[in-house]
Design a protein that fits this description.
This protein is mainly α. The protein contains 8 helices and 2 strands; from the N terminus they run αααααββααα. Bound molecules: protoporphyrin IX containing FE (HEM). The site of protoporphyrin IX containing FE has 20 residues, from α2, α3, α5, α6 and α7.
Length: about 260
């Protein structure tokens, strides 16, 4: 092949690939533009905000149930919960990924709650359906108050057990597992933490409010996701009440058992 032909083919080749890149760029741009507009519209609409609240609620619900199951290991041999905590603390980037997802989920949950409250206030009817309005505002007021106290509880809880700044001496608690691994003694930390009656009472009250929050939250989440109809509303109501009571009992059992000396 001569020099000129080679240059000509190369030019043709680069012209073709240039066209291809342009095509791909146009498709990517239109797609991202479409996604941006759709997401912006979705996040601006009440329905979109209700979805954000419901989906973030489901994620947080799964987290608190998983956390409770993990914490109930306090009733087994101390090595069990210590090995479990050691496993979680050593997840490295995985642990940070979960923490970031949880943080983003909490932010999304609070953002949608604030937005929906503002919208509801603007759209409040004057005098009709007074009974329904009173009931609805009672439920949403309960959600706001319980949500606010649960948030305060989470901040205290992180300072107490994760950062260990409330009692810095917890940072020096270490123990050895049966296989010789030296780990943070989370079992002793929890026992020491709940031997303080005021802290235990705060946990029990906060978890009580969280359970009330879950009970209302599950019902409105099912409504927002369109999974609640007249036929199954009754049984679902019972399931959400049962789940909240179980959740409260499981969590409250931990400080109560420690204060009573069953776990030491
Ligand atoms: C009796 C009830 C509870 C007990 C005994 C308990 C116990 C613990 C312990 C021991 C840790 C620290 C684990 C470690 O770093 O080794 C922890 C972390 C944590 N707990 Fe709880 N918890 C309780 C309730 C709750 C509730 C109700 C929530 C949320 C609403 C919650 C959210 C968290 C979060 C977000 C972390 C931090 C996880 C991390 O990123 O390291 N906990 N909990």
């Amino acid at each position: 092949m001569g020099f000129a032909e080679t240059v000509g083919l190369r030019n043709l080749g680069s012209l073709e690939s240039g066209k291809m890149y342009c095509g791909v760029a146009v498709i990517v741009f239109s797609l991202s533009n479409f996604m941006e507009k759709t997401t912006a519209r979705l996040f601006r609409s009440s329905l979109g905000k209700k979805y954000v609240m419901a989906v973030s609620g489901v994620i947080l619900l799964l987290f608190v149930i998983g956390h409770l199951i993990g914490n109930l290991q306090i009733f087994a041999h101390p090595d069990v919960i210590n090995a479990y905590a050691h496993f979680l603390q050593n997840l490295g980037p995985g642990l940070w990924a979960v923490r970031l997802i949880l943080l983003a989920t909490v932010v999304a949950h609070i953002w949608s709650a604030v937005e929906l409250t503002i919208e509801n206030r603007r759209a409040r009817p004057d005098s009709y359906e007074v009974k329904d309005t009173i009931q609805a505002s009672y439920a949403s007021r309960t959600m706001r108050i319980s949500g606010f106290i649960v948030l305060a509880f989470i901040l205290f809880h992180l300072a107490h057990f994760t950062l260990q700044v409330v009692n810095p001496e917890y940072q020096d608690l270490y123990t050895e597992l049966a296989d010789g691994t030296v780990v943070h003694d989370v079992h002793t930390m929890m026992v020491a933490g709940f031997q303080n009656v005021w802290i235990s009472l705060f946990y029990i009250v906060a978890i009580g409010l969280l359970s009330v929050h879950l009970r209302h939250g599950i019902a409105s989440m099912l409504q927002s996701l369109g999974w609640r109809n007249r036929k199954i509303a009754g049984p679902l109501e019972k399931v959400s009440i049962g789940l909240s009571i179980l959740y409260f009992a499981g969590n409250a059992a931990i400080p109560l058992a420690i204060m009573a000396g069953f776990v030491s």
